[in-house]
Design goal:
Layout (H helix, E strand, L loop, with lengths): L7 E8 L6 E8 L7 E9 L2 H7 L15 E9 L11 E4 L2 E3 L5 H4 L10 E2 L23 E3 L2
Parallel strand pairs: 3-8
Antiparallel strand pairs: 1-2, 3-4, 4-5, 6-7
Pfam family, one: ADH_N
GO molecular function: cinnamyl-alcohol dehydrogenase activity; zinc ion binding
EC number: 1.1.1.195
C-alpha cells in the first residue's frame, strides 16, 4: 500500500498567469488519507473549459494552476478504507473530486449540483489546500494523481 504518512513532491504542467502558457511546476501532494486512491496519470485530456480556466476567461482563475480533468491512470496506492479499487487497476477521473455527500443532489447521485462540490483543479479542499489536477479527498474513493 505504501506510506500513508508522507507527502509527495510531483511535477505537473501549470499555467502561472492568464497567458495560459504551461510549464513544469513542482508541488507537494497532501498525505494519502484512509479513503484516498493515488493514481499515476497515464493520459490527461485538455478540453476548452481547461483553456478558459488557464487564460482566466471566466475571471476566477487561481495560479499556479495545473489544468486537465479527463484523466486515465493506474492505481499505485490505496488507503486502508478503500474497497472498490486496488493497486494496478486502471481508472478514469473526471472534473468533480469531492462533495458534501449529505445534500439532496448528493443523495440522488447528481453531485454536480452539490453547492459544496470540489473541482479537480482551480478550487480549494475543505482543509484550505488548493486542488491541482486530481489530488482529491473523499467521496470518490478519492482519486489523486501522483504524476
Amino acid at each position: 500500500m505504501g506510506s500513508l504518512a508522507s507527502e509527495r513532491k510531483v511535477v505537473g504542467w501549470a499555467a502561472r498567469d492568464a497567458t495560459g502558457h504551461l510549464s513544469p511546476y513542482s508541488y507537494t501532494l497532501r498525505n494519502t488519507g484512509p479513503e484516498d486512491v493515488v493514481v499515476k496519470v497515464l493520459y490527461c485530456g485538455i478540453c476548452h473549459t481547461d483553456i478558459h480556466q488557464a487564460k482566466n476567461h471566466l475571471g476566477a482563475s487561481k495560479y499556479p494552476m495545473v489544468p486537465g480533468h479527463e484523466v486515465v491512470g493506474e492505481v499505485v496506492e490505496v488507503g486502508p478504507e478503500v474497497a472498490k479499487y486496488g493497486v494496478g487497476d486502471v481508472v478514469g477521473v473526471g472534473v468533480i473530486v469531492g462533495c458534501c455527500r449529505e445534500c439532496s443532489p448528493c443523495k440522488a447521485n447528481v453531485e454536480q449540483y452539490c453547492n459544496k462540490k470540489i473541482w479537480s483543479y482551480n478550487d480549494v479542499y475543505t482543509d484550505g489546500r488548493p486542488t491541482r489536477r486530481v489530488d482529491s479527498p473523499p467521496p470518490w474513493s478519492s482519486t489523486r494523481s501522483l504524476w
